[in-house]
Specification:
Blueprint (H helix, E strand, L loop, with lengths): L1 E7 L18 H16 L6 E4 L3 H13 L8 E2 L9 H9 L7 E6 L3 H9 L12 E6 L13 E6 L6
Parallel strand pairs: 1-4, 2-3, 2-4
Antiparallel strand pairs: 1-5, 5-6
Helix pairs in contact: 1-2
């Protein structure tokens, strides 16, 4: 089995789009990430690899998840294309070229792309994808190159309002 975890970055400051790439997380965003990673710990969902957009809000979210889940933050891979450039096919290529020694892959990025990916990779996902939304999909395959759209089984969907 291969597990894909799609994460939208946590809540950010509203500083406009002139400095969009550098927007920081708010205290609420940090707290939301802590709540969700606590649940991931309880469900024993741990990353073998984390890939993130290099935008400040995404990489900060990735580092919060990594720290809480026992993953070395220096091993987070940053891919510029996850900052609004990737198509669904680019994303599928990324997943299908993942080393098969990795069983659980975390991807941290931005909406609307994270929402579209959650829908496109899952058989039955029709939820919303607010900030810090975390969608855990399981694929009944042994190799990443066999992962296909619409085949992921929804294992978990965690989002901040679950904790309010």
């Amino acid at each position: 089995m291969k597990r894909l975890v799609i994460i939208r970055h946590a809540k950010t400051e509203h500083s406009g789009y002139d400095n969009d790439f550098q927007r920081e997380l708010t205290e609420r965003g940090i707290g939301d990430a802590e709540s969700i990673t606590k649940d991931l710990n309880e469900w024993k969902v741990f990353p073998d690899k984390i890939i993130s957009s290099p935008a400040t809000r995404a990489i900060t979210t990735a580092k919060l998840f990594a720290t809480s889940l026992g993953y070395n933050t220096s091993e987070i891979e940053e891919i510029k294309g996850l900052y609004f450039d990737y198509s669904t096919q680019d994303f599928l290529d990324l997943i299908q070229n993942t080393n098969d020694e990795i069983d659980t892959l975390f991807i941290v990025g931005h909406n609307p792309f994270m929402h579209f990916l959650s829908q496109n990779m899952s058989k039955l996902y029709d939820g919303h994808t607010p900030t810090c939304s975390t969608v855990v999909l399981d694929f009944e395959v042994n190799n990443w190159n066999n992962v296909e759209p619409r085949q992921g089984l929804l294992f978990l969907h965690l989002y901040p309002k679950l904790y309010k």
